Amino acid sequence: MTISSIIGIVLLGFIAGVLSSMVGIGGGIVIVPILVLLFGLNQHTAQGTTLAMLSFPVSFAAAYTYHKKGLVDWRIALILCAGFVIGGFLGSKIAVELPVGTIKKVFAVLMIAIAVKFLFFEKN
User: Fold this and answer.
1) 11-37 tens-digit pLDDT
2) Integer Cα distance of 73 and 21 in angstroms
């Protein structure tokens, strides 16, 4: 890995961290596409790498800031965590068996659906 790649990946992590803590996006919407488009990872590897990056210590630093302002419902977070662990395990089992092209299409459709909702159907 070159020094420019390392710097690029650090910048990507920084930008995703800022966006994640500001508006709740980062891994799937920012990091995965950039890892595929700019760093040459395939979709599966980009997804797996992003999931590994999102481990507890990384997310906790941002969540702690919200917690200090009383903006975290830990009951809901823990319940979501339980579902996320099970869903993440099952989803990864499915994803690694699908062709990369299928995963890319599912990912693209999801991003388009989210964009259309925010652009045209958001009430607030």
Assistant:
1) 998 988 887 776 677 777 888 889 999
2) 16
